[in-house]
Amino acid sequence: MPVIRLPGLALFLIIATSQQAAPAQSPKFPPGGQSSANLHVLSHIPMGKAFSMTNLDIEQDLSRPFVYAARMRVQGLDVIDVKDPRRAAVIYSWRIESPELHVGIGGMDAKYFKLNGRYYTALAMQFTQGGPDADLGAVVFDVTGLPNPGSVREAGRIRAGDVPGGFHNVFAYKHSDGRVLLFASNGPHANVYDMAKFLSGDPRQGLIAMVPVPDTSGWQVNNCHAVTCSYHDFYLGYDAATHRDLFYGAGAGGYHIYDVSRPEEPKRITSIAGVAGVTHGHTFTPTPDGRYAVAETEYQYAPLRIFDLKPGVEGQVKTISRPIGAWTADWRGLPHNTEVRWPYVFTSSYEDGLQVINMMDPTNPYTVGYYYTWDGPHQKGYGSDQNPEGGTSIYSGAFGVDVRNADGLVVILDFNTGFWALKMDGFDGWDGRQWGLPNVSSAQDWDHGPEGAPKITKQASR
């Protein structure tokens, strides 16, 4: 069965050569059955061209109610104000200059960060050769003055000419040593940027390290710049028990964990590799204590797999090869991105919209809520970069998801239907300590650093 890549998107389909495309079907739910009773839409904003909405990031401070939405195909960034989540509105839009000359998909991911009292957003960009900016990895904006759209200014551009094609994903992380770091997927490694150095005009643009993709598959990834040899997505979190900053990377061969307490010298701890049905990891999100992880691989029919990381992290085994649990909303589809707020997993599940899972028993996860943001036909999803609207894939519907810990607001970007703000009954915010766990999630404490880490009195520099 051949592996087919959709250019630029790093989406993988495993399709039997004899299999015929399934006919389009009506929505999966009866009238009035679009949502479970405990999930409610606060606002919805249609945002234009189909297959142009990708990932998003919400600021965690209630006094800064801004969502940053990456836009592919229209090649830019939108900022959404959710001060009143029932009246969400787009307040700022940016598009790259001369968009008609650019080749590729454009904006794929956005992450905000705070540094020296100012707020920034890094927009990951992907352009290919044949047009301008094939070496452009990210555009960084100073967004301190929001909600005034006239105050937004471009603070700089990160370029990566050694591996053209841009960055597919970025992750902004407040390191335990006080630095603000940006991790970016780029060829057979993740680039690590010190954003204080970048903003100060460092000649290397703040590039301080690279986290390699380990060659667990025999693909000679160090000599390969294709997407099959790279990291697709990653997560960083502080492990208070061992006082380590850990990198969780999904990419070639599976899923890999590195100690990046000193990012200039990353040390691989363990990998999840040799898993049946997994040749390339897509998304990798651990629980707050780092004991378990939710992992996704990108092809139709693949469930989310849950792994017990303890044997690998504690050195009992070199690699982990078997999941302990699995979940999917519908066997015909595919769960996509995940945000873990123990015991819940918030999943943007393409055709199946927002799905909320309880994984208190990791061997038996189950659905506790859902809202179908996509109510169109089955298997009429993304086709190709050249013909995105002519496809027969399941890549349609909910793409990006994020959660605001202060009040439990859930935000979704849907490939077709746009932006959604939702609320789940009984989930009015999240703090890991209320569950007897470290207060660790994708949300960063930009002022104080990771919970449990030694306190830094000033920005570290190396």
In words, what does this structure look like?
- By secondary structure, the chain is an all-beta fold.
- The chain has one domain (3-435): 7 Propeller (Methylamine Dehydrogenase, Chain H), CATH 2.130.10.10.
- The protein contains two helices and 31 strands.
- The chain has helices at residues 195-199, 310-313, and strands at 3-6, 11-14, 39-45, 53-58, 66-71, 76-81, 89-95, 104-115, 118-127, 136-142, 153-159, 170-174, 180-186, 189-194, 207-212, 231-239, 244-251, 254-259, 267-273, 283-286, 292-296, 304-308, 319-320, 325-327, 337-341, 344-348, 354-358, 366-371, 398-403, 410-414, 418-424.
- The longest helix has 5 residues, at 195-199.
- It is globular, with a radius of gyration of 20 Å.
Topology:
Elements (H helix, E strand, L loop, with lengths): L2 E4 L4 E4 L24 E7 L7 E6 L7 E6 L4 E6 L7 E7 L8 E12 L2 E10 L8 E7 L10 E7 L10 E5 L5 E7 L2 E6 H5 L7 E6 L18 E9 L4 E8 L2 E6 L7 E7 L9 E4 L5 E5 L7 E5 L1 H4 L5 E2 L4 E3 L9 E5 L2 E5 L5 E5 L7 E6 L26 E6 L6 E5 L3 E7 L38
Parallel strand pairs: 19-23
Antiparallel strand pairs: 1-2, 3-31, 4-5, 5-6, 6-7, 8-9, 9-10, 10-11, 12-13, 13-14, 14-15, 16-17, 17-18, 18-19, 20-21, 21-22, 22-24, 25-26, 26-27, 27-28, 29-30, 30-31
Features:
462 residues; Methylamine Dehydrogenase, Chain H; 5-stranded mixed β-sheet; globular; 2% helix
Task: Write down how many β-strands occur, each being a DSSP E stretch of 2 or more residues.
Answer: 31
Strands side by side in the biggest sheet: 16-17-18-19-23
User: Could you tell me the strand content as a percent range?
Assistant: 35-45%
- Low-pLDDT residue spans: 1-23
CATH topology (fold) name: Methylamine Dehydrogenase, Chain H
- CATH 4th-level superfamily: YVTN repeat-like/Quinoprotein amine dehydrogenase
Kindly report how far apart the N and C termini lie.
Answer: 49 Å
Radius of gyration: 20 Å
The number of helical elements comes to: 2
- Helicity level, as a percent range? under 10%
CATH architecture: 7 Propeller
Characterize the overall form.
globular
Q: State mean pLDDT (0 to 100 scale).
A: 90
